[in-house]
């Protein structure tokens, strides 16, 4: 029997918290996409490739049962969408400024910081670095890396 691909269920958090560069427009981060409805994407069949191809870490891990993050980590449930970039940086896009402080996601984020990953907390109000001791440091975006297209941040104090 063919198994169904993992699905987002009723989650649509990436359609709000992430910046989405579409062919004819750019949806800013932390702004609901005009096509996002309670029933999901209203242009699902014709959604841009960038939307069809995106998988947050929770969704990506559902493909391998031995690595699958628990259902409580689904972004709409835990309030944080995790994206891992190629450098191993954890990009935590928060539904609300304090979403990252809630369990179970807080313990996971802190564990990643303690294992040496850069953990960046993005919300509508601030960009923060989560340190291994649980404290945070404000960050300032200074541009986009022309090669990786990743945003580049520096500690606010050193800006
Ligand atoms: S945040 Fe993840 S689980 Fe939620 S809709 Fe986007 S890709 Fe799917
Ligand atoms: S076009 Fe659809 S899938 Fe893409 S961000 Fe908007 S609502 Fe989400």
Question: What small ligands are held by the chains?
Answer: iron/sulfur cluster
Shape annotation: globular
- The residue fraction in helices comes out at 10-25%
Count of spatially separate domains: 2
Biggest sheet features: 6 strands, mixed
The sequence of SSEs as H and E is HEEEEHHHEEHEEEE
What is the tally of helical segments? 5
Show unreliable segments: none
Task: Say how many strands there are.
Answer: 10
What is the percentage of strand-forming residues?
A: 25-35%
**How far is it from the N-terminal to the C-terminal residue, by CA?**
56 Å
Structural class: alpha+beta
Nearest-angstrom radius of gyration? Answer: 16 Å
Spatially, the strands of the biggest sheet line up as: 5-6-7-8-9-10
Overall mean pLDDT score?
92
Question: How are the secondary structure elements laid out?
Answer:
Elements: H1 14-17, E1 20-21, E2 26-27, E3 36-37, E4 40-41, H2 49-53, H3 57-61, H4 75-78, E5 80-84, E6 90-94, H5 105-114, E7 119-122, E8 127-130, E9 136-144, E10 151-155
Bound molecules: iron/sulfur cluster (2 copies).
């Amino acid at each position: 029997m063919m198994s169904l691909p993992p699905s987002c269920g009723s989650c649509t958090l990436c359609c709000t918290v992430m910046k989405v560069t579409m062919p004819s427009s750019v949806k800013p981060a932390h702004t609901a996409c005009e096509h996002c409805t309670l029933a999901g994407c209203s242009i699902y069949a014709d959604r841009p490739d960038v939307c069809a191809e995106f998988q947050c870490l929770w969704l990506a891990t559902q493909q391998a049962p031995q690595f699958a993050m628990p259902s409580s980590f689904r972004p709409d449930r835990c309030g944080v969408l995790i994206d891992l970039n190629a450098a191993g940086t954890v990009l935590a896009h928060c539904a609300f400024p304090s979403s990252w402080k809630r369990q179970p996601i807080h313990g996971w984020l802190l564990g990643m910081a303690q294992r040496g990953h850069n953990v960046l907390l993005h919300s509508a109000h601030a960009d923060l670095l989560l340190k291994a001791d649980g404290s945070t440091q404000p960050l300032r975006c200074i541009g986009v890396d022309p090669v990786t297209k990743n945003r580049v941040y520096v500690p606010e104090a050193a800006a």
